[in-house]
Amino acid sequence: MTKIAIVVFSDTNTMEAMGKVSNAFMLATEAIEVGDELKIIFEGAGTKWIGELEKEDHKLHGLYQSIKANITGVCKFCAQAFGVKNEVEKAGVFLIDEYKSHPSLRNLFAEGFQVVTF
Question: What average pLDDT does this structure show over 48-69?
Fold first, then answer.
């Protein structure tokens, strides 16, 4: 079994960023289908995606809904810094604060995950 960690850093403000998130979700979908161990984390400006993707009229809403149960969480520090903590909590997505209020990306490597960033 492959261990994959997908970390989304991309902001929400460009078509390129939406393409990155779409590609991240396609990788996640494939990993889920074959039974890989998967972690999906939103970091930095990427924390803003949760509120956007919760909107039913967003182009990626359906794809987001299909992988949402597999989202590990969102950086607590960055969600606060980007003003989206309430949106993340409302969406029921876990806020991660393993290392100084951030996810521990180092732990992903220590646990044997292949880390892919978008």
Answer: 97
Looking up tokens 């220590």, which residue turns up? 110
φ/ψ (deg, to 5) at 84: -120, 10
Q: Are the beta carbons of 52 and 87 closer than 8 angstroms?
A: no
| pTM for this entry | 0.95
- C-alpha–C-alpha distance, residues 96 and 7, integer Å: 13
Q: What are residue 3's DSSP bridge partners?
A: 37
pLDDT at 38: 98
User: Could you tell me if 21 and 10 are in contact, meaning their C-beta atoms sit under 8 angstroms apart?
Assistant: yes
Q: Does domain 3-117 have CATH number 3.40.1260.10?
A: yes
